[in-house]
């Protein structure tokens, strides 16, 4: 009774905007920030209910990632630290679109019963709140707090301005009973980075004053600020941050990973002076990164080193460690690891060929981190990346245990670091602590790339030469109803409207290397077209022809 009154009175301050239909989408709710007060409030309620249901701490992040600064958004970090269970997404949609406080209350009561959520007060609900640097973030945070605390006894803990992956990391750490402050995050990343540096083979040049600098485009967002803090804890690696939120530029405007990856041009404040230096772009909430090279006499164009290539570098390093681990007498305690690579159809075909040549098992899922991440949990080591730079490496509990057993032997037995196998086990353990186990993380991804390049003794150019991207082209087509396009087979085949796939096939067949897909965007009101072919002209033509078919 008290609960019903509390909900009704607080919900009466948050009427939904008229004539707007909201959908949880690929990565939570996103819209113009002025439309989101009631949505964020209601996601606050959802997070509190999720905490009740899972008997865990839940996270709520206010961000619209790479979207323009006037947009904002909200998404949930689930008990595991990953994305909200897909099973709850329809409820999220229903809550956000409930036309009145009375409807909202009805929906909540129904759902609580259906899900068997016990509201007897024997679990202390706690929701961790985070937000990026958007000016609308503070007001939306207040709405989220109101939502959480409209469940009797629930606590909303404001963690401040964070990157999205930091919040996911904190939720995961809290639920594992680990220390979970921002300082703990920085310490875990820097200490595992140091561990990997210490394990670089002696003959390889370590950070040597020439190769130790990386220049970061922070998208005028939160990532640059955090990276500066993290950088203070690192030895050897010099991180120069440009386009950080306090530098005064506009978030994601002519800067950031999404811009750099899609347009293949230099972000603001980068130029010919950066030729030959390793450059990285983060996105607005620092869950994506892409590297790039400024070619000599660049007229704004760049050589992009995208998520596919980051994935390939990680896979190569992990494969090398596993081969050491599995050498003869070292076999004993470690079961043969089952490694899986997960990509989307938007991965460049050359990367897939390369990974298969390495003997790796490559799997495909639809676009969206939640799909890749879920697939990656099926392996001892699951490595996933989208071409746009979002990805991570997941380790199964049992594989971590076998690595730990292995490294315990080292500390108990032989004092000297013995075999290659033992060092490889230490490296893999450090890698599992460095790379974010909850979600893709530009900060930890950057540190892992940097230490692997040092380990290999490679320049960014050498890395970029692993394989050559096939020419590709991405387009977006504004359509009346993007949901009219329905796909299957990890978005590689159109099933509706009828006849469209046949028409695409006909166009694709004109080039020996032709590949082409269309799919409705999960974040914008458009249909996306991706084309790959043996020449840039052919890829452009293919994309343009197929765009006309969609229109
Ligand atoms: C979101 C997704 C990303 C996906 C992108 C596709 C998360 C954290 N992010 O940014 O994985 O690649 O949407 O957007 O899930 P699109 O459907 O508009 O191309
Ligand atoms: Zn992002």
Keywords:
551 residues, alpha/beta, Alpha-D-Glucose-1,6-Bisphosphate, Chain A, domain 3, TATA-Binding Protein, five-stranded mixed sheet, 40% helix, 19% strand, binds 2-acetamido-2-deoxy-6-O-phosphono-alpha-D-glucopyranose, binds zinc ion, phosphoprotein, magnesium, Phosphoacetylglucosamine mutase
Your description of this structure?
With 551 residues, the chain is an alpha/beta fold. Among the domains are: 2-161, Alpha-D-Glucose-1,6-Bisphosphate, Chain A, domain 3 (3-Layer(aba) Sandwich); 308-440, 3-Layer(aba) Sandwich (Alpha-D-Glucose-1,6-Bisphosphate, Chain A, domain 3), CATH 3.40.120; 472-550, TATA-Binding Protein. Helices cover 40% and strands 19% of the residues. It has helices spanning 2-11, 37-54, 89-97, 101-114, 137-149, 164-175, 182-198, 222-231, 257-263, 307-325, 349-357, 369-376, 397-412, 420-434, 442-456, 460-464, 500-508, 536-550, and strands spanning 29-32, 58-62, 71-77, 126-131, 155-161, 213-221, 238-244, 278-282, 289-293, 303-305, 339-343, 361-364, 381-385, 391-395, 472-478, 486-488, 493-496, 515-520, 526-532. The protein has a 5-stranded mixed beta sheet with strand order 1-3-2-4-5, sandwiched between helices. The termini are far apart. The structure holds 2-acetamido-2-deoxy-6-O-phosphono-alpha-D-glucopyranose and zinc ion (ZN). Residues 26-27, 65, 287, 367-369, 386, 388, 390, 521-524, 528 line the site of 2-acetamido-2-deoxy-6-O-phosphono-alpha-D-glucopyranose.
């Amino acid at each position: 009774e008290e609960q019903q009154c509390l909900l009704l009175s607080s919900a009466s301050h948050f009427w939904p905007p008229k004539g707007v239909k909201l959908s949880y989408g690929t990565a939570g709710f996103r819209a113009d920030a002025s439309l989101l007060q009631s949505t964020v409030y209601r996601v606050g309620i959802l997070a509190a209910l999720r905490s009740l249901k899972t008997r865990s701490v839940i996270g709520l992040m206010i961000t619209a990632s790479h979207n323009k600064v006037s947009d904002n958004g909200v998404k949930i970090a689930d008990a595991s630290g990953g994305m909200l269970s897909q099973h709850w997404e329809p409820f999220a949609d229903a809550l956000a679109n409930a036309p009145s406080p009375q409807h909202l209350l009805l929906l909540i009561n129904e759902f609580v019963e259906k899900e068997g959520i016990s509201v007897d007060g024997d679990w202390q609900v706690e929701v961790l709140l985070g937000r990026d640097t958007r000016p609308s973030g503070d007001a939306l945070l207040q709405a989220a707090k109101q939502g959480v605390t409209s469940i009797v006894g629930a606590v909303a803990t404001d963690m401040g301005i964070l990157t999205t992956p930091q919040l996911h990391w904190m939720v995961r750490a809290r639920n594992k009973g680990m220390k979970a402050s921002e300082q703990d995050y920085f310490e875990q990343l820097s200490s595992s980075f140091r561990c990997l540096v210490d394990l670089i083979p002696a003959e390889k040049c370590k950070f040597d004053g020439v190769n130790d600098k990386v220049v970061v485009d922070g998208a005028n967002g939160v990532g640059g600020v955090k990276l500066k803090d993290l950088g203070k804890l690192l030895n050897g690696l010099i991180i120069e941050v440009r386009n950080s939120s306090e530098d005064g530029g506009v978030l994601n405007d002519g800067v950031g990973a999404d811009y750099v990856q899609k347009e293949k041009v230099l972000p603001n404040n980068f130029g010919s002076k950066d030729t030959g230096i390793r450059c990285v772009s983060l996105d607005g909430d620092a869950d994506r990164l892409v590297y790039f090279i400024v070619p000599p006499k660049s007229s704004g164009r760049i050589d992009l080193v995208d998520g596919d290539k980051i994935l390939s570098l990680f896979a190569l390093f992990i494969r090398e460690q596993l081969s050491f681990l599995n050498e003869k007498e070292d076999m004993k305690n470690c079961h043969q690891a089952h490694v899986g690579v997960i990509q989307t159809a938007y991965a460049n075909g050359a990367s897939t060929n390369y990974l298969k040549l390495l003997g790796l098992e490559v799997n495909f899922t639809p676009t969206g981190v939640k799909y890749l991440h879920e697939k990656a949990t099926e392996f001892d080591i699951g490595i996933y990346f989208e071409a746009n730079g979002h990805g991570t490496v997941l380790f199964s509990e049992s594989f971590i245990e076998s690595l730990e057993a292995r490294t315990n032997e080292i500390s108990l037995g032989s004092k000297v670091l013995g075999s290659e196998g033992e060092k490889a086990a230490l490296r893999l353990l450090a890698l599992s602590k460095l790379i974010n186990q909850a979600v893709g993380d530009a900060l930890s991804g950057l540190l892992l790339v940097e230490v692997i390049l040092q380990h290999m003794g490679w320049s960014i150019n050498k890395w970029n030469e692993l394989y050559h991207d096939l020419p590709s082209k991405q387009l977006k087509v504004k359509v009346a109803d993007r949901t009219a396009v329905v796909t299957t087979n990890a978005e590689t085949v159109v099933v509706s409207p009828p006849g469209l796939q046949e028409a695409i096939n006909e166009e694709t067949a004109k080039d020996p290397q032709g590949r082409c897909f269309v799919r409705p965007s999960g974040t914008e009101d458009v249909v996306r077209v991706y084309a790959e072919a043996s020449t840039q002209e052919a890829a452009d033509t293919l994309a343009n022809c197929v765009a006309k078919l969609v229109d």
